[in-house]
C-alpha cells in the first residue's frame, strides 16, 4: 500500500526551488524596505516626524485651529506652510 503523503522526486525538487525563490523574494523585499527607511531617515529626522507634520498640516488645511482643536507640540510655521501647499494643490478631501 503506497503512502499518499510522500512526494515524488520531481515534486521535491520543485518545492525546494519554490522555497529558495520565496526566500530570495523575501530577502529582496526586506533589503528594499530597509534601504528606503535608511534613505528617508537621512533626509528627515525620523519617519514619525514626517507623518506627524503631514497630519497637522492636513488638519490645518481642513480648517481646524491649532491649540484649540488639537494639541500642537511644535511651532506652527512649518505646519502652516505645509497646509498652504496642501490647499494650493487641493490634496485635502
Task: Supply the key terms.
single chain; 68% helix; mainly alpha; elongated; 3 helices; 93 residues
Q: Any overview of this molecule?
A:
With 93 residues, the protein is mainly alpha-helical. It folds into 2 domains: 10-43; 45-93, no CATH class. The chain has helices at residues 9-43, 47-61, 76-88. Helix 2 (47-61) crosses helix 3. The mean pLDDT is 75.
Write the topology of this structure.
Blueprint: H1 9-43, H2 47-61, H3 76-88
Helix pairs in contact: 2-3
Brief rundown of the structure:
With 93 residues, the protein is mainly alpha-helical. The protein is built from three helices and no strands.
Uncertain runs with pLDDT below 50, 5 residues or more? none
Average of the residue pLDDT scores: 75
Structural class: mainly alpha
Q: What gyration radius follows from the Cα positions, in whole Å? A: 25 Å
User: Strand percentage, roughly?
Assistant: under 5%
Q: Based on the structure, what is the oligomeric state of the protein chains?
A: single chain
Distance between the termini: 67 Å
Instruction: Count the beta strands.
Output: 0
Number of domains: 2
Q: How can the largest sheet be summarized? A: none
Shape: elongated
Amino acid at each position: 500500500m503506497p503512502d499518499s503523503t510522500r512526494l515524488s522526486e520531481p515534486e521535491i525538487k520543485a518545492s525546494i526551488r519554490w522555497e529558495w525563490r520565496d526566500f530570495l523574494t523575501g530577502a529582496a523585499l526586506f533589503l528594499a524596505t530597509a534601504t528606503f527607511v535608511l534613505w528617508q531617515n537621512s533626509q528627515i529626522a525620523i519617519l514619525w516626524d514626517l507623518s506627524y507634520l503631514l497630519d497637522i498640516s492636513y488638519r490645518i488645511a481642513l480648517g481646524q485651529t491649532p491649540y484649540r482643536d488639537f494639541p500642537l507640540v511644535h511651532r506652527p510655521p512649518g505646519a502652516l506652510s505645509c497646509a498652504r501647499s496642501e490647499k494650493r494643490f487641493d490634496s485635502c478631501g
